C-alpha cells in the first residue's frame, strides 16, 4: 500500500468513485495489459507534454504562495524535476523516437480536457491559498505514483509500456511522491492545526482534490486513437 | 453589421472557421428556429450560471490589471452588469420559473468544457497582461452581441427563446458591446501603439481570441438534452 | 464604540500599540485640532489618490478570490464606492480646488511607504487566500471609520478639515464599515468554522492585520510639509 | 564595461540619476572602502534575507508567466541559485557567524523600504506580463553584478567585505547576469519584435526599471547602524 501521508489517504477515500475511475481507467488498464494501441499512447503523450508545461507553472506558483523556506524548496525541487526529468528525458526522447520534434510538440493544439485540468489547478492558486493549490496538484502526482506501483506489480516484463511504468514506479518518482505527501500534511498542520478535519476548509480541500481527480479522468480520455 | 471596433473585426476575421462554428453552432440555430428542446436550454442555462460567476471573476481581474482609471471603471461596470443583470435577473428568474433555486444552482457540477473556458480566461490574466485577458474575454461578450443582433432579425416573434434573444439584442447589452470594443482598441493602442499589427504580440492576442472562441464552441455543446 | 464585528475587535486588540500609533497619529491629531498645515494635507491627499487606485485594485482582487456570490457582491460594491465616491468626488473635487488636475495626479511619484502598503495588500491576495486579503484590507477601511467617528465628536465645527471628517464619520461610509466587518466575520466562519481562534490561521491573519496597520502608520508620515 | 545586453543598457541609461544613486550609494561606497560599520552591514544582511525570500518568489512567478520552455528554464535556474547559493550559503553562513539563526532571521520585522521593493516587483507580475516582471527584477540582479565588478577592481585586498564583493564579482554570479541580460533581450524581441522602442510598452518597461531602481536606493538606506 502506498504511503503518501494522512491528507492523501483521507482525500483519496473521500474521492471514492472518482478515484477509482481515474486509477482504474481503461487507458490505465490498456497500459497494464499492454493492449493500448501505440497511436492512442502517442495522442496521450503529446497532450501530456502541454500538460506538464502548465503543471510545472502551477508548481512554480506554489513557490510563490509557500509560507516557509522549506515549502519553497520542496516545490522548487518539483519544478526542477518536471523541467528536467519528465519534460526533458521521458517526453523528448519518447517523442523523438516517434518523430515528434520539440517544435512540433509546442504547436500541438491543447485538447479541451487538458485545458480544463491545468487551468483549474492554476486557478486554485489564483483564487485560493497554498493549500488549495496543493489539493489540486496532489491527485496527479500521487495518483501516478499509485498507478505506477500497481502496474509494476501487475504487468508483464515484456509490456510495451514498461518504460513508462518504470518511470512512475521508480525510486526517484516514488521518493518525490512521499515528499509531496509529507509537504501536504505539514502544510495543512501548519495552517489548520492538529485537527484540520474540524474546519470547513478541510471539506473544501477534499472537494478540490475530488474535482481535480475528476478532471484527470477526462484527461485519460484523450488517450484514444 | 456589428460595429465593435477594429481589434474585434480583425481577430474575428482571423478566427475564421472557429468563429463560424461558434456563432452558427447548432445550439444557436436551435434558438433561432425555436426548435431547441427546453431541457437542452435548461442544461445550458444551469452551466451558464457557473460560467458567469467565473466570467465575472475574470472581469474583476481585469480591474486589477488595468492601466488607467478609465480602464478600471470600464471593467468594473462590466462586473456590475454581470453581478446584477445577468446573474441577477436573467438567470435567477428563468431558473426560478423552472424550479431551480440559487442554492441548487450553486451546487451544480461544472462540466469540463465550462471549466476549460473560464479557467483559460482567468489564466490569461495570470500568465499575461491586461491585453491577454481582454483578448480571452472578448469572444464571449462580443459573440453574444453578434448572435443576439442576428437572431433578433432572423427569428419569429413567437420564438420560445424571445426573451433570451431580446437580452442580447437589446440596447443595454449592445451598448456594453460597443464599450468593450472601444476598450479593446484603446487598450491595444495605449500599449502597442498605432501599428499593433507590426508586433508579435498582435499575433499572440489574435491566437488567444481564437482559442477562447474554440472553447466557446465546446461550451455550446453543453446545451444538449 | 464602533461595532465592526468580532474579527476586527480581536485583531484590533492584538495590534495594540500599532493600532494606537495609527489611529492617534500626529497627522490624525493635526486634523482633529485643525492645526495640520494645508500643504501637509495636500501632500497626503495626492499620495492618497495613488493609494486609492491600488486599494481599489485590491478590492477587485477580492472579487476574484471570493467564495460565494454574496462575497463577490460585497467586494464589488466597495470597488464601486472607491471608484465613484472617494476617487471621484472627494479627491477630484478637493484636488481641483487646489489646482491639481486628474492628469497631474496620475503623474505624481508614489512615495515608498505608499508603495509598501498597497503592494503588501495586493501580495496578500497573491500569496494567500480571500481571508489573507481581507485581513490586509481591513485596517484602512475600519481604521478610517473609527477615526472619523472619534474626530466627528472631538473636533470643532469650524475645523478646516470638517469635510474630510464628515466623509468618514458619515452614514454611507459607516454603513460600508459595518458591512465590511460582517463580511470579515462571515468569511472567517465560512472557512475556519465557529472556533477560528483554535487554528494557526487565526494568528497569521491577526499578524497580517497588524502588519497592514504598521504600514498605515508609515503612510500618515507622508502627510508632512 | 558590463555586457548585460541591449535592454539593460538602454533602460540603465534612461534611469540616469536613479541608477547613479543606486550603484554609487554611500552604502556601496562604504563597502568599497571597507569603512561601512559591521553593525550597519548586519542590518542590511538581515533585511536582505527577507528580501531574497520574496525576490525568489518573484522569480518563481516569472516561471508561471513565461512563454516558452526556455524562458521557464532560465527563470527556474535563478530560483534555484537564490534558494541554494544566496539564501543558503552566503546568508546562512555569514549570519551564523554573527550569531543569527535561521529561526531568528525568519522572525525579523521587514522594514518598509524592503516591503515596498519586493511587493512592487511581485505586483509587476500580478498587474503586468512577463516583461513587466523582468523589468522590475532586472535592476537588482544586474546592478549587483555591475557593483560587484567595479568593487572587485576598486577595493583593497584586505577589505573586510571581500567575501561579499567576491560573490557578486565572481564567475557564477556574472554568468547568471549575462544570462538574465540575454533573457531580457530575447523576451522583449519575442513579444515586441525587432523595434520594441517604437511601442509605448518600451517606455512603460523603462519606467518600471527606473522605479525598481529607485526602490533599490531606499533599500540601501536600511544599511545603517
From TrEMBL, chains A, B, C, D:
Q: Which SUPFAM superfamilies match?
A: Heme oxygenase-like
Gene3D superfamilies linked: Heme oxygenase-like
Example of a GO cellular component annotation carried by this entry: cytosol
Under Pfam families, the record lists: TENA_THI-4 (PF03070)
Q: Where do the Thiaminase-2/PQQC domain residues begin and end?
A: 18-220
> Protein name, please?
Thiaminase/transcriptional activator TenA
Amino acid at each position: 500500500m502506498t504511503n503518501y501521508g494522512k491528507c492523501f489517504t483521507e482525500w483519496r477515500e473521500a474521492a471514492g468513485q472518482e478515484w477509482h475511475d481515474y486509477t482504474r481507467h481503461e487507458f490505465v488498464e490498456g497500459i497494464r495489459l499492454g493492449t493500448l494501441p501505440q497511436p492512442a499512447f502517442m495522442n496521450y503523450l503529446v497532450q501530456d507534454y502541454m500538460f506538464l508545461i502548465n503543471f510545472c507553472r502551477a508548481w512554480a506558483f506554489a513557490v510563490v504562495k509557500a509560507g516557509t523556506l522549506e515549502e519553497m524548496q520542496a516545490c522548487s525541487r518539483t519544478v526542477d524535476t518536471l523541467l528536467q526529468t519528465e519534460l526533458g528525458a521521458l517526453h523528448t526522447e519518447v517523442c523523438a523516437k516517434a518523430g515528434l520534434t520539440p517544435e512540433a510538440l509546442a504547436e500541438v493544439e491543447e485538447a479541451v480536457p487538458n485545458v480544463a485540468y491545468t487551468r483549474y489547478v492554476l486557478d486554485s492558486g489564483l483564487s485560493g491559498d497554498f493549500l488549495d493549490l496543493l489539493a489540486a496538484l496532489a491527485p496527479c502526482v500521487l495518483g501516478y505514483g499509485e498507478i505506477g506501483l500497481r502496474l509494476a506489480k501487475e504487468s508483464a516484463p515484456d509490456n510495451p509500456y514498461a518504460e513508462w511504468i518504470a518511470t512512475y514506479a521508480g525510486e526517484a518518482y516514488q521518493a518525490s511522491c512521499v515528499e509531496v505527501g509529507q509537504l501536504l500534511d505539514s502544510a495543512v498542520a501548519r495552517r489548520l492545526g492538529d485537527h484540520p478535519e474540524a474546519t470547513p476548509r478541510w471539506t473544501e480541500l477534499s472537494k478540490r482534490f475530488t474535482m481535480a481527480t475528476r478532471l484527470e479522468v477526462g484527461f485519460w480520455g484523450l488517450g484514444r486513437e
